[in-house]
Amino acid sequence: LPAFYANTVLLNVSSLSFRLQKLKEMFISKFGSAPKFYVRAPGRVNLIGEHIDYCGYAVLPMAIEQDILIAVEPVKTQVVQLANTNSLYLDFSTGVNNIQIDKTKPQWHNYFLCGLKGIQEHFGLNNPTGMNCLLDGTIPPSSGLSSSSALVCCAGLVTLRANGKTLSKVELAEICTKSEHYIGTEGGGMDQSISFLAEEGTAKLIEFSPLRATDVRLPSGAAFVIANSCVEMNKAATSHYNIRVMECRLATKLLSKSKGLDWKKMLRLHDVQTKLGVSLEEMLTIVEEVLHPEPYSTEEICKCLGISLEELRSQILTPNTQDVSTFKLYQRAKHVYSEAARVLEFKKICNEAPANAIQLLGELMNQSYISCREMYECSCPELDRLVDICLQFGAIGSRLTGAGWGGCTVSMVPTDKLNTFLKNVKKAYYQSDVQRLVLENNSLFATKPGRGALVFVEA
User: Fold this and answer.
1) pTM exceeding the 0.85 threshold for the entire prediction
2) What is the CATH number of the domain that holds 12?
3) 151 bridge partner residues
4) Residues whose CB falls within 8 Å of the CB of residue 319, separated by 6 or more in sequence, listed in order
5) Is residue 341 part of a domain?
């Protein structure tokens, strides 16, 4: 069987979960007929390895229980009708040919269209199947738990199934990674990869070029707790994320040129290390030697590379970074190389399971957070406060997860301290603020490694 069909679950109507049954009833009420199948794609929490997937380095996420679930009915009309169980998200419909995605307004349906368009273009589908789709999501939006990528992945799998096509999970992940770029986010591939490749009970080391996933067994004496700062951050709606991607790309160019490499062909910091054949520790030394901590102006970058400002803008910068006047290259490169080393060390400790594994892993998470805050500057006051509270009340390690600038923290907490930890963090962070109090129930929870994307079909 094709890989994704191996994850197809047959269901009798009587055994449908309450959520699926409710979704089915709403679908019938909305479209006047029953869905033919359902697709689920999970969100994820990244345990360590922030902002390094798009630089070519391995990351260490796990899928979570929260997900995107879509009920689907293929139809003969070449129209896709999208509806959402959440009334805040308006209905949308479009013809299946010549899909247009508005980068200026990252609305929910545009993420669905990314997955749809990615599959259409991969197979060169001239007359793809129309669909009625009803979506239900339990991932808090703009929380750093990958709700957007889960929707792209879900839509990709929906389109694949509706059109009777097959792909491996790895191929699906790679297509969905590229197709999310349609919305304007220059992401790496972690979110889409873990959404398809996740397995229950294990985190995954996700490596790129080629894409592969390795099981990482987490220590049994600790729980991972997600806490939402309640500050929303949408990667596609702000420039923070894409500026960081560009700063890493520019650092790649300058490091490459300083070492006599063909800098024009070099895009990722990982490429520099590979070409030079040196260790991550040696790359950190090279960063110290070549780059200066002061921000680089566009004029200085042009001088270093021997190109004009017009060439910089047209050949290297993306449309949404062309107006940026200064870039921090030293800090971003230093974070990426040190974070990549922490990921490998985290996996090594999990594999070897020394007696003090929890303490060692916690220290790596704390180092990651400090680097994200100080070198990558992707934290915010609320995340800083939440990390402090989590560490104060018993977390061995705590860090921001996802893009940052809002969203969630992930903390490693000894299992015997979990209940006290949850109680104290609720009181200190959520119950002390009226706005956060409203969101408290869905904002703080322990999580275990969950399953990857699934197709449900009624038997």
Assistant:
1) yes
2) 3.30.230.10
3) none
4) none
5) no
